[in-house]
Design a protein that fits this description.
Layout: E1 12-15, H1 17-27, H2 29-45, E2 56-59, E3 64-71, E4 75-83, E5 97-103, E6 109-114, H3 116-134, E7 141-145, H4 151-162, E8 166-170, H5 174-183, E9 190-193, H6 197-200, E10 206-209, E11 216-220, E12 230-233, E13 242-244, H7 246-251, E14 253-256, H8 259-265, E15 278-279, H9 280-285, E16 298-301, H10 306-320, E17 327-329, H11 341-348
Parallel strand pairs: 1-6, 7-8, 7-10, 8-9, 10-12, 11-13, 12-16, 14-15, 14-16
Antiparallel strand pairs: 1-17, 2-3, 3-4, 4-5, 5-6
Bound molecules: nicotinamide-adenine-dinucleotide.
The site of nicotinamide-adenine-dinucleotide has 28 residues, from helix 3 and strand 11.
Length: about 350
């Protein structure tokens, strides 16, 4: 794979939060979202060759900590990510993450990176890449319900990748809507702050739900959803945490990343185990149908899958080459004589 050969040094490139932000500004937010979407789409096209498993989740009363591994046979990757809806009220992020790529040939890591900012970018790039395939042609308006950390990224990805020019914001907390509206000023979108979820959906062809609450919430009820829309459901991503009334699922064609994970974590956890879904990689490859009519409701039941993180890390690894946007970490003990690990430790005493 391009640019993912092992380093001949044991030092591991590390992209800190500070360097990630510099990299994003160096590339530009919208070009980076477009670049990430291209990498994610390329990996969806070769979906079958990846190792796949539902993420390994450790649940508690307050939230979840998850590991998300995958490999394409040449490169292995994983992300550590948490989801703690109560964090925001304590001044902490709901979602934080970091991730790693390693060379399958010798097992040595080749990249360690912050992934809190990168996850927001990759989630938005995935949403927009999927909407490009499923949303009604010429969609210009998106309802953005839940105006927290992910919301501006979601809005800008839909602009950059799908041509959406208007975003209608709604959050139970008006301060979140004010924050998102302020942040989106000057990005070339019409931004409308709305007082109810119903109001935010006025004229919207794309409806994004991105709320955080560790419960079976009902952000959208069936009567709110008209024919022909695309729903991008981001926030329901863990057992016992959903956003849509199940009647909406019955009326929609549901598209997912990896069914064994989505059946545990997604909106479809409310449905029977054999509830029909379409895998998004098949739509992208042309082996399954996406949108087939103007009146069809398409629903992307997004939970976030390891391959998207792998693609994002691959993008970062390619883009930091030849830049100063990383430092090298002394992460691996690597004695000149591989069998003399103890000798290396002893010599360090002197
Ligand atoms: P956040 O805590 O920063 O924001 C969530 C917002 O939702 C808050 O502003 C809150 O006031 C609002 N909210 C809660 N209940 C609401 C309701 N009933 N109606 C309207 N707004 C409501 O969280 P975030 O980082 O933006 O993440 C949002 C959700 O997306 C989380 O549940 C997270 O787990 C999920 N997520 C999914 C993916 C994925 O790949 N699918 C990736 C990242 C995050």
């Amino acid at each position: 794979m391009n640019n993912l050969a092992p380093s001949d040094k044991a030092l591991v490139p590390f992209v800190s939060v500070d360097n990630m932000m510099k990299l994003v500004h160096h590339i530009g937010v919208e070009p980076m979202l477009i670049g990430l979407a291209d990498y994610i789409e390329a990996d969806f096209k070769r979906w079958e060759l990846f190792d796949k498993t539902p993420r390994v989740a450790s649940h508690s009363e307050e939230g979840v900590i998850e590991l998300m591994p995958t490999s394409d046979g040449e490169v292995y990757g994983f992300k550590y990510v948490n989801g703690h809806p109560k964090n925001m009220k304590e001044g902490l992020q709901t979602v934080t993450a970091f991730g790693l790529l390693a060379n399958v040939g010798n097992g040595y890591p080749v990249l360690l990176s912050e992934m809190t900012v990168l996850t927001a970018l990759r989630t938005a790039a995935t949403s927009a890449m999927v909407a490009k395939h499923l949303a009604p042609k010429g969609a210009t308006t998106m309802a953005m319900i839940g105006n927290g950390a992910q919301s501006e990224f979601q809005s800008l990805a839909m602009k950059a990748i799908c041509g959406v020019d208007t975003v209608r914001l709604y959050d139970v907390d008006p301060a979140a809507t004010e924050k998102a509206a302020r942040n989106l000023e000057g990005w070339g979108m019409n931004v409308v702050a709305c007082k109810t979820a119903e109001d935010s959906m006025e004229g919207a062809q794309i409806i994004t739900t991105c709320t955080a609450d560790k419960q079976y919430a009902t952000i959208l009820t069936d009567n709110m959803i008209g024919a022909g829309v695309h729903i991008n459901a981001i926030g329901g991503d863990c057992p016992g945490k959903t956003e849509l009334h199940k009647d909406i699922l019955s009326r929609s064609d549901v598209f997912v990343e990896y069914p064994p994970q989505t059946r545990i974590e997604g909106e479809i956890q409310q449905m029977a185990d054999d509830f029909p879904v379409t895998e998004m990689w098949e739509v992208i490859n042309g082996t399954a149908k996406g949108r087939t009519s103007d009146r069809q409701i398409t629903l992307f039941d997004s939970v976030g899958f390891a391959i998207e993180d792998f693609s994002a890390l691959r993008f970062v690894r390619d883009r930091i080459k030849g830049t100063e946007r990383f430092i090298e970490l002394d992460l691996l003990a690597d004695p000149d004589d591989p069998r003399d690990l103890f000798g290396m430790l002893q010599r360090a005493a002197s």
